[in-house]
Amino acid sequence: MDLHFKTYLEEFQQHLTNDVVFFENIKSEVKLLEVYTASMSNSMNEIYSGEGLKNIPLYCARARENLPLIQKSFENIKKAFPEEDFFKFNHAWKTHTSQIAEWVLLIVFLERGDLCLKKEFSEIIGVENESQLGFHITLEEYLFGYLSMISDLVSIFSYSLILSMNVYPNLFSFQIVILKMYRM
């Protein structure tokens, strides 16, 4: 066997071994992200229980309790692999990031009555907004979260109408958001 070819194969094998190690480090943090995302989801889905519409600020506060944990997980994921390999490993956490975006965007809307832009979302979860700056939120992750948040708002608004409960004024600004979206 050619010595040059053998060296190439050894380097390639080492590269694959490194990727396995990086992925194993990432996987444990992604499992934590899954737990935090489920916790946020459980808190926010309480809106649909009994007096849930009257307790929206409480459920938003409970869901926000997961944000420092999420920030820490993203910080650990960022340290788990070389920065230039971001897109090689991004598939491992992108679904959870989209779900986190859904809940954070919904929380911000219910608390303030306006939309959370991608830059603000990335600051909330402690990662970069732009790909040139390193570990970042992709536009795809943000937009999937945004679309899911709109679906959640429709559900909450419908639930509110069914119960004839006009207890949360920001739900009515939802109509304005829909009109703004159609004008984009």
Walkthrough of the structure:
This protein is mainly α and 184 residues long. The chain has helices at 3-45, 56-64, 67-79, 86-89, 94-112, 118-125, 139-162, 170-183. Helix 1 (3-45) packs antiparallel against helix 2, helix 1 runs antiparallel to helix 3 and helix 5 crosses helix 7. The radius of gyration is 20 Å and the shape is elongated. The N and C termini lie far apart (62 Å). The mean pLDDT is 83.
| Poorly predicted runs of 5 or more residues | none
Q: What fraction strand? A: under 5%
- In whole angstroms, the N-to-C terminal distance is 62 Å
> Strand tally, please?
0
- Tally of contiguous helical segments: 8
Largest beta-sheet characterization: none
Q: What is the general shape?
A: elongated
Specify the structural class: mainly alpha
Task: Please summarize what this structure is.
This protein is an all-alpha fold and 184 residues long. Helices cover 73% and strands 0% of the residues. It has helices spanning 3-45, 56-64, 67-79, 86-89, 94-112, 118-125, 139-162, 170-183.
Task: List strands and helices in order, with pairings.
Elements: H1 3-45, H2 56-64, H3 67-79, H4 86-89, H5 94-112, H6 118-125, H7 139-162, H8 170-183
Helix pairs in contact: 1-2, 1-3, 1-5, 2-5, 5-7
